[in-house]
């Protein structure tokens, strides 16, 4: 692969490839699996003077932002937006899935679904785990079989778009199964919300966790959890509230019910981040979610075509791949770190190494929001080609 | 008081007081007990393009920011900065104070110290409580007596500057007692860090919780916890790690030890907020903490003198008051809401109502960071005078 002869090795391209920069810029193009680059108009919202996080003006704005999330995910229940990372959203979601003796089911087919098990473990909760090989989706048949074998399981959580392996689990079909069985269905949509259509109502999703900085396109710093009416009801009917304070949906829901018209949650909200989030949600609406989905699919296909032409393999089946990121196998003799450093040092493009057991075996390329554009993937492919030919 | 005759009722002042605005501005001057107004150069940091939250460049910047916090609080241990609110910092701190059967001591003399008890309760932990009347500080003698009566108490937590009552608890003297007894000492410095000098080393403070949006002067969204070496050691020597994930100092510390040079904490950091925080910490250093302390003290004294001239009473003893905020008694016939609305609607100045049992009895005026300036308190006093005279 390296040293492979192609026409571009002469003339302009040859010189371009030999070009060495003296001072790399600090700002990078973020083609990692998040955070992503943020549009300028969204960044400007960050610089607005801080406002008070309670009172009518703020509450109207916050609730309007929650309504935009509800519209994006099509859910009639409620949405909570809190200062935190995707991890906080994930913890809040899985912690709500059962009381001490309830059986929680977790599909484990990547780093982030495995993190849900680790989080539950810190509370002394041991879920029932459906383990699937990394790089494969979980099939509806596997879920059905798992639930038949484990009839005490009351709730099931999985990751929609798994950024460690690049797969997109089929939540629509799985939702049909959990709905039929009357099981609470929870989805980690941290890297799918805003990129892949999610219909919580028709897919029977009761809890959905996401964050500000990936598919939605805002700067990092906000955890977002949406709950269907069935999900809210499940939380409210617990014998004991969910343990803990900051990550407890019982607490979030309590404040919402008691003081939604004055201060929807009793913490000092990161108001500047909510300004930016609001701007992004409106931009998604303006682009149209169907068009946005098509854009991400198109860009993902183009990138994968280019990578295959360079002789590289996509880690998972393309039909099962998420449009948010692409995970690419890198032969050992090439070296993931070498490729990552080449792109970073010469092109200011950041891509990511494999996570967990895939470290050193794959690189992960994010193409979400602002970065799901032809200009980004063409520059990236050129940079990879150059590295392989050198 | 209202209708009291003063010279200013004629001429220019009379007309000014009758002036009615048609359209109030959305932006307010935040003289609430936080968040506070943020300086323009700090706000501009918020609009920088998002950067990656791992790798050498980021780690250097993040660790430098932590070092600035260490310097501010004079602590040799470690500092953790995480996406969250002051509540998250508080929860992380109190949760670290004991295992299931350890006795945790809490001084309860305001809304925020009471919140620590409520937070522990969500984990099924019942601390030993030293209850002090709202509006009074806890004295070193009371602490000494409490610890003598409760020899099993292993750690003690209190709020330094209590924004519900306006008192500043004497942490220096109390630290001397806890140090002598070998007890872990934890301080909520959410509204004191950056305004009142805190010396964790010489005051024997082992854990200190604060946030970005008050005395430090950045926009809201970051929780900050500092730990002394003794504090870190206490956490590391536990039999079982602290429960939970996002709010657990065991988890924060684990990542710090395992990967400080690559990604100090395994969440997607709110990088824009850290840019702003870094800028504020440098500005505090430039102003000089002694000068900054004097500025806050001077402004607090000036404001209180003005309020007393208007016939209003400060809620706590002035010698025991925090320089961060002033809590003022409002006679029932005047009405806190009426005064708050007058200042908001006519002057765009926001002040806050009393919290908990003080609601409707006091107003709370914040004068921290950008707002600890003569121009702010003069405008505020004029607005209050006008309201009282009407």
From TrEMBL, chains A, B:
Residues carrying N6-(pyridoxal phosphate)lysine: 214
Positions of the Aminotransferase class V domain: 51-354
Repressor recorded as keyword: no
Keywords (A to Z) from UniProt: Aminotransferase, Pyridoxal phosphate, Transferase
Coiled-coil segments on the chain, per record: none
A GO biological process held by the record: glycine biosynthetic process, by transamination of glyoxylate
Entry binding sites for substrate: 364
Cofactor annotation: pyridoxal 5'-phosphate
GO MF, one annotated term: alanine-glyoxylate transaminase activity
Designated name of the protein: Alanine--glyoxylate aminotransferase family protein
Superkingdom of origin: Bacteria
Pfam entry (one): Aminotran_5
Family to which this protein belongs: Belongs to the class-V pyridoxal-phosphate-dependent aminotransferase family.
Organism: Biomaibacter acetigenes
């Amino acid at each position: 692969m390296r040293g492979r002869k192609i026409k571009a090795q002469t003339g302009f391209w040859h010189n371009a490839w030999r070009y060495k920069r003296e001072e790399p810029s600090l700002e990078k193009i973020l083609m990692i699996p998040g955070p992503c680059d943020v549009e300028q108009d969204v960044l400007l919202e960050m610089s607005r003077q801080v406002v008070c996080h309670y009172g009518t003006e703020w509450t109207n704005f916050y609730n309007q932002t929650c309504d935009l999330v509800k519209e994006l995910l099509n859910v009639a229940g409620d949405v909570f937006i809190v200062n935190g990372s995707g991890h906080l959203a994930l913890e809040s979601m899985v912690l709500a899935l059962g009381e001490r003796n309830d059986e929680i089911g977790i599909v484990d087919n990547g780093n982030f679904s495995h993190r849900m098990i680790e989080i539950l473990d810190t509370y002394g909760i041991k879920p029932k785990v459906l383990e699937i090989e990394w790089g494969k989706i979980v099939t509806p048949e596997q879920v059905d079989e798992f639930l038949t074998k484990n009839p005490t399981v009351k709730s099931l959580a999985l990751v929609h778009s798994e950024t460690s392996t690049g797969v997109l689990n089929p939540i629509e079909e799985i939702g049909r199964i959990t709905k039929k069985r009357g099981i609470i269905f929870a989805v980690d949509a941290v890297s799918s919300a805003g990129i892949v259509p999610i219909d919580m109502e028709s897919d029977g999703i009761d809890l959905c966790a996401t964050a500000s900085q990936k598919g939605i396109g805002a700067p990092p710093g906000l955890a977002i959890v949406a709950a269907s009416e069935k999900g809210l009801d499940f939380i409210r009917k617990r014998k004991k509230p969910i343990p803990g304070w900051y990550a407890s949906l019982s607490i979030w829901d309590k404040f919402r019910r008691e003081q939604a018209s004055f201060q929807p949650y009793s913490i000092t909200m990161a108001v500047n981040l909510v300004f930016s989030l609001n701007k992004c949600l409106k931009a998604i609406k303006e682009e149209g979610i169907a068009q946005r989905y098509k854009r991400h699919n198109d860009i993902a296909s183009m990138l994968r075509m280019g990578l295959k032409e360079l002789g590289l393999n996509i880690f998972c089946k393309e039909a099962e791949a998420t449009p948010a990121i692409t995970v690419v196998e890198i032969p050992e003799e090439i070296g993931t770190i070498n490729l990552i450093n080449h792109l970073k040092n010469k092109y200011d493009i950041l891509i990511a190494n494999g996570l967990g057991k895939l470290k050193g075996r794959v690189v992960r390329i994010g193409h979400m929001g602002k970065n799901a554009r032809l200009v980004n993937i063409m520059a990236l492919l050129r940079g990879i080609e150059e590295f392989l030919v050198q």
